[in-house]
Design goal:
Strand content of chain A: 25-35%
Number of helices of chain A: 9
Radius of gyration of chain B: 22 Å
Distance between the termini of chain B: 50 Å
Mean pLDDT of chain A: 90
Mean pLDDT of chain B: 93
Largest sheet of chain B: 9 strands, mixed
Distance between the termini of chain A: 54 Å
Number of strands of chain B: 33
Largest interface: A-B, 44 and 39 residues
Oligomer: heterodimer
CATH superfamily of the largest domain in chain A: Spore Coat Polysaccharide Biosynthesis Protein SpsA, Chain A
Number of strands of chain A: 28
Low-confidence stretches of chain A: none
Shape of chain A: elongated
CATH architecture of the largest domain in chain A: Alpha-Beta Complex
Shape of chain B: elongated
Largest sheet of chain A: 7 strands, mixed
Structural class of chain A: alpha/beta
């Protein structure tokens, strides 16, 4: 069973404009040393998918710098491996793609050249340690055209761009509809889809003729036309669709059960770019409680309920509480931070007092100084 | 293939018996250091940072962990099409199979490797030392003085000099006296075990030495004295900086402790001279509500619910609630059970320590380190005296 992975690096990034101003959603830093794409990419590799294309649209320097040749995910291969698929725009000036369907259409020749039986499509906003293998096995066993990977989730007002999926006892999808207006617990589509490669190409080839422009509207809604099945994920699986989500899910990493499930489940690790940082150093004055501290940090001050990324310096007398401090940032002496998200290379000078709220964390932009 | 100016040969076959249980199943260069490193990361990173991209690593004693660790050399950017890291194990030849007998013989048996690359110079290194050194500066002096051999020296306290090869040199850095471990040292210039040879000279000297039945086949004891005797061009390269032989439990403990503090005796970071290592996929260290670390190093993958003071904690270590680790070094993958007290101890990889164990004591010293060998499992309530060695069966 050969499988081709396709990862969309940009979809959903309008949800978190702060963090995606200078980067793709895929390269948003998460969990002290990772980028969001590490989860789906590692999940695919750990599931035996070693032929993966990443669709990019814009702002993708940070992503290319992160994945490089794919070596850190064991994807620097002669046969298959990692391919970055930059946007394709022809001379007609039509611009680059605007939807998931247009995006996949723009890489049709890449898919055509693959010899895979199945294509797995995934976004980067989902954080989980996903083994795709059982979902692929279920897809094959049911003889499905399409398998949607779903999770049970409490739907809130204001959620958007998600599909609610209804399934029968045999997991056959009987209805898909938009999440707007819905409330309560539902099966929600993760935007991880398994589709047979032949069917995908067939749809792409006929899309103009059939007027297909959207997966959710023109394909997934036609539950009688296509054999669509659902595959339910259990265990830890969350989506990052706002800065508040980002904050909340970051803080969940302080729970060792979440860490065990996300980073160690079944011996499958989450891989990321190697930075060769030195281990974290704590001085006599350091006080660290309920926090995650990455390599390369120098901790002299107080850190409580926080995530500190690689290479940060928390100076003596600084108090960091409930905050997320990204790579190479500095909090100088005597400053107090509460519910703050500091992007990369940011700097809080001496004696500052900064505070946000979990639903509205105070955000300091990349390379910003306060 | 383009000729190289200099290739390195790294002697990594030593047993390191003074490290006791740490080297029961691994060669000394593969012993852990500083939380996420192994000793061999230092010479390999020095090579890569000095622009030396071809390194033969000579292994012999317990090579499994070392071989796996070196792999393709990728971790140190030494996976090259032309050159790179090569593991050179003793092999069988038509004339028979020989183990490496002495440092010089180990290189002699790999003359084919040297001839293949046919570099102008050959750098001989050992896998026993913690230091950051730019070998390209030594090479520049070596070329400038047209030396047959350049020996890196570091000044040591005179009372320690009898442990080293001691040299005297003139203003031009030419060595006129060399004594291996002298009882009455004439200077405090100690050999660092870093030799830079003209390749042709090295091949000639090694070939000749191999035919000498009275030779111990050792650079310090045989080759260098012979070169001095013949008044060949033997020069010293004076190194300034941190350099530590980690051949004993005490010196290994001290070198780890030298990393601690705001202004450490030996800084791993803060300069462009990065030390590379094999990297594992661990999440950042997680501190629980009761966890703490002071004047310590904590590495990724750790879960700290106990107290860590003046210690170096390796990757993927769990320290449970109420456990106290003081003045100790814990290698990767070890679990320290709730309520256990650890003082002046070195705990090797993948050790499981039960609850309420007592290892070493707070009044001990680096001269009396309690050592626990890799894969050891200690049941709840185990007590281990300071200065003792405990190994897995």
């Amino acid at each position: 069973m050969k499988t081709l992975g396709i990862i969309f690096s940009n979809i959903h990034e309008r949800d978190i404009p702060e963090l995606t101003k200078v980067r793709t959603l895929a390269s948003v830093p998460f969990g002290g040393r990772y980028r969001l794409i590490d989860f789906v990419l590692s999940g695919m590799v750990n599931s035996g998918i070693t032929n993966i294309g990443i669709i990019t649209k814009y702002n993708y320097q940070s992503l290319m710098d992160h994945v490089q040749s794919g070596k850190n995910w064991d994807l620097s291969r002669k046969n298959g491996g990692l391919t970055i698929l930059p946007p394709f725009s022809d001379e007609s000036g039509g611009g680059v793609f605007n939807s998931r369907f247009e995006a996949i259409k723009s890489v049709a020749s890449y898919i055509r050249h693959s010899d895979a039986d199945y294509v797995v499509m995934a976004d980067c906003d989902i954080i989980c340690n996903l083994d795709f293998a059982p979902a692929l096995a279920a897809h094959e066993k049911k003889g499905a055209d399409i398998t949607l990977i779903v999770r049970k989730k409490k739907v809130n007002r204001g959620d958007h761009e998600r599909l609610i999926v209804e399934m029968d006892n045999d997991d056959r999808v009987t209805k898909t509809c938009g999440v707007e207006g819905a409330e309560g617990e539902h099966m929600v589509y993760t935007d991880f889809m398994i589709i047979s490669r032949r069917l995908l190409l067939y749809i792409l080839d006929h899309s103009t003729q059939w007027g297909v422009t959207s997966f959710s509207r023109d394909i997934l809604a036609k539950v009688n036309e296509y054999k669509i099945y659902g595959y339910q994920l259990d265990g830890y699986c969350v989506a990052v669709n706002s800065l508040a989500d980002y904050y909340a899910h970051s803080m969940e990493l302080l729970n060792p059960e979440v860490v065990r499930e996300l980073f160690y489940k079944g011996g499958a690790g989450i891989y990321t770019k190697v930075r060769d940082s030195v281990p974290a150093k704590f001085t006599d004055t350091a006080k660290v409680t309920n926090s995650m501290i990455a390599d390369g940090c120098l901790i002299e001050g107080e850190v409580t309920d926080s995530i500190i990324f690689r290479g940060c310096h928390i100076a003596k007398g600084a108090k960091v509480t409930g905050s997320i401090i990204m790579q190479d940032s500095v909090v100088e002496a005597g400053s107090t931070l509460n519910c703050v998200i500091m992007d990369k290379d940011a700097h809080v000078l001496e004696g500052r007092l900064l505070s946000g709220h979990p639903t509205h964390p105070y955000y300091i932009e990349k390379e910003g100084t306060i | 293939m383009k000729k190289k100016k200099c290739v390195a040969m790294l002697l990594a076959g030593g047993q390191g018996s003074r490290l006791k249980a740490l080297t029961t199943t691994v060669a000394k260069p593969a012993v852990s250091f500083g939380g996420k490193y192994r000793i061999i990361d230092f010479p390999l990173s020095n090579c890569t940072n000095s622009g030396i991209d071809t390194v033969g690593v000579l292994t012999q004693y317990q090579p499994l962990v070392l071989n796996e660790y070196i792999g393709t050399g990728e971790s140190w950017d030494l996976d090259r099409k032309n050159g790179g890291a090569h593991v050179l194990a003793p092999y069988q030849a038509k004339r028979g199979a020989r183990w490496y007998e002495g440092t010089a013989n180990a290189i002699y048996q790999n003359i084919q490797f040297l001839n293949k690359y046919d570099s102008e110079h050959v750098l001989i290194l050992s896998g026993d030392h913690i230091y950051k050194m730019d070998y390209s500066k030594m090479l520049a002096q070596h070329v400038e003085t047209d030396a047959d051999i350049t020996i890196a020296v570091i000044d040591v306290p005179i009372e320690e000099a009898p442990r080293f090869g001691i040299m005297s040199y003139d203003k031009s850095k030419k060595i006129f006296d060399f004594a291996e471990k002298p009882k009455e040292p004439k200077s405090n210039h100690a050999s660092m075990g870093v030799y830079l040879f003209k390749k042709d000279v090295l091949v000639r000297m090694l070939t000749e030495d191999d035919e000498d039945p009275n030779s111990e086949k050792d650079f310090g004891k045989n080759i260098i004295p012979k070169m001095l005797e013949r008044n060949m061009r033997v020069f010293a390269y004076q190194f300034e900086g941190y350099w530590k032989d980690v051949g004993t439990l005490k010196s290994l403990w001290e070198a780890n402790m030298d990393l601690l503090g705001l202004k450490p005796t030996f800084a791993l970071d803060g300069d462009a001279w990065k030390i590379y290592s094999g990297n594992n996929a661990y999440p950042p260290a997680l501190f629980m509500k009761e966890g703490s670390a002071n004047n310590s190093i904590v590495t990724e993958g750790d879960i700290i619910a106990g107290e860590v003071v003046n210690s170096v904690i390796g990757e993927g270590v769990t320290i449970e609630e109420g456990a106290v680790v003081e003045n100790s070094i814990v290698f990767s993958g070890t679990v320290i059970g709730a309520g256990s007290k650890i003082s002046y101890a070195i705990i090797d990889e993948n050790v499981t320590i039960g609850k309420n164990c007592v290892l070493g004591d707070a009044k001990s010293s680096p001269d009396r380190i309690a050592l626990v060998g890799r894969d050891t499992v200690l049941p709840d309530g185990t007590e281990i005296e300071s200065g003792s060695v405990t190994e897995a069966d």
